[in-house]
Amino acid sequence: TQVGKVLEQLAQDGKVREKAYGKQKIYFADQNQFQNFDDGELKDIDAKIAKLSDTLSTLRDIVSGQTSTLTAINSSLTLDEAKSRLIEAEKQISLMTSQLEKIKSTSETLSPAKKNQVHEDHKKFVELWRKRKRMCMDMFNAILESFPDGKSKLVEDIGFETDEDCGVQIPTSVH
Questions:
Q1: Hey, what's the torsion of the CAs at 116, 117, 123, 128, to 10 degrees?
Q2: What are the tens digits of pLDDT across the range 66-116?
Q3: CB of 27 closer than 8 Å to CB of 16
C-alpha cells in the first residue's frame, strides 16, 4: 500500500527505524535525530504543559457556559414573537370573557328543590348502575366456571368490556 511504501522510504532515509517480526514490520521514530533534554528542561516543559492544560480546561468551561447561554437565548422568544403571542392571548381572553358574560346573563339558576331532585336522581342511577354491574359480573363468573379456556379467552370471545377497561369508575360519593 501507499503507507507501506512511504514508511519503507523513510526507513531508508534514516528518519524512522524498522524492525521485522516474522512477516510483520514495526516502524518507529529514530530517537537519535532528536536532541536530548536534561531533567530541568523536562520539568519546565511539564510545568508548561500543566499550565496550558489548566488554561484549556478553563477555556472549555467558559465555552460550555457560553454555549448553554446561547442555546437558552436561541430557544427564547424574540420581542416580535412575544408581542404576537400576547396579542393572541388577549384576543382569547376577550373572547372567553364575552362568552362567560353571555352564559351568566342567559343562564337560569336552579332552585333548591330542582337541585335536590337532580342529586336524588343521580344517587338512584348510581345505585342502579352498581346493581346491574353486580348482576352482569355474576352471570359472567357463572359462565366462566364452565368455560374450558381462561378468563382472557372468554373476554375476547364475547367482546366483554368492564368499566375499568373503558376508564370509567362508579362514583363513590353521592352529593
A1: 170
A2: 999 999 888 888 889 999 999 999 999 999 999 998 888 876 777 888 889
A3: yes
Q: Where are the alpha helices (DSSP H) in 2-111?
A: 2-13, 39-75, 79-106
Is the whole-model pTM more than 0.85? Answer: no
Contact criterion met (CB below 8 Å) for 13 and 6:
no
d(CA 34, CA 138): 95
- Contacting residues for 18 by C-beta, under 8 A, at least 6 apart: 7, 8, 11, 25, 26, 27
Residue keyed to cell 372468554: 154
Q: Which own/partner contact pairs does 24-32 have at CB distance under 8 Å and 24+ positions apart?
A: none
With beta carbons less than 8 A apart as the criterion, state whether 38 and 31 touch. Answer: no
- Contact criterion met (CB below 8 Å) for 70 and 54: no
Read out DSSP for 16-44?
A: EEEEEETTEEEEEE-GGGSPP--HHHHHH
What's CA 26's distance to the chain center, in Å? 50
Cα-to-chain-centroid distance, residue 157: 38
Q: Which of 34, 25, 35 is nearest to 4 (CA)?
A: 25
Contact 161, 168 (CB under 8 A): no
